[in-house]
Specification:
The chain is an alpha+beta fold and 223 residues long. It has helices at residues 2-20, 41-54, 200-222; strands at residues 25-31, 58-60, 70-73, 76-78, 98-114, 116-124, 133-137, 143-147, 155-162, 168-188.
């Protein structure tokens, strides 16, 4: 009897672990040849879709000190890229500062783990440099990679993702060899987390386990 119960709960736990390593949901929009946020029509639409799903998140616009729960390694905060919109610009309404990255990578580390992250990036020239990526781990040994869209001639993009219920301590943005600006970070825990409700498959497994337990008890009583 005890052995059978162990098997049942092992199967249920396996079903839970499979759902725990789900692929992130991405929200990506890109625009070619941009010089202001108003030009980033597709990017704005992707950001709106992202926030509609996540609900309110922490915002970093680089116009004031970073919040205590965020550390950024790499890049430098500036109000001038040195080569105009082709190398990046501010996207905050009424603001002027953004973070500039001369190739390489920048890592965002969170004191409190997150499952949602997004930001605007501009200065993209994916036709002449390698593809940019976002890389992170989901709290286990699984590494997730999100590829950036194509955007040329100083293009812009919004890239956001939600990996529901995961414990993401840091996210690394690889700029390849491009000079890029990024601004208006959004990060935190999604308010609309569907993992708060057990998945149908998990519930079915649990139901079968309880049914088997009940049948076994009935047979023993009959005997």
């Amino acid at each position: 009897m005890l052995k059978r119960l162990k098997i049942i709960f092992a199967v249920v736990l396996l079903g839970c672990s499979v759902s725990a390593n789900a692929v992130p949901t991405t929200f990506i929009g890109a625009d070619d040849s941009v010089s202001s946020l108003a030009d980033m029509v597709n990017s704005l639409a992707a950001a709106a879709d992202f926030l509609a799903v996540t609900g309110p998140l922490d915002v970093v616009d680089f116009e004031s000190a970073l919040p205590s729960n965020l550390t950024i390694t790499g890049g430098s905060i500036t109000d001038n890229s040195g080569c105009g919109a082709l190398c990046g610009f501010n996207t905050t309404a009424g603001g002027s500062y953004f973070t500039l990255l001369y190739g390489g990578s920048v890592t965002f580390s969170f004191t409190d783990a997150v499952d949602a992250f997004g930001f605007y990036v501009n200065g993209l020239q994916t036709n002449v440099v390698g593809q940019q990526t976002i890389v992170y781990t989901d709290g286990s040994s699984v590494t997730q990679t999100i590829n950036f869209p194509s955007a040329i001639n100083g293009g812009g993009a919004f890239v956001g993702f939600v990996d529901y219920g995961q414990q993401i301590a840091s996210v690394t943005f690889n700029a390849s060899n491009d000079i890029l600006g990024f601004d208006d970070l959004r990060f935190g825990y999604s308010a609309n987390d569907p993992t708060n409700v057990p998945e149908p498959g998990t519930m079915a497994l649990l139901g079968l386990g309880l049914l088997g337990f009940g049948v076994t008890r009935r047979r023993r009583k009959t005997a």
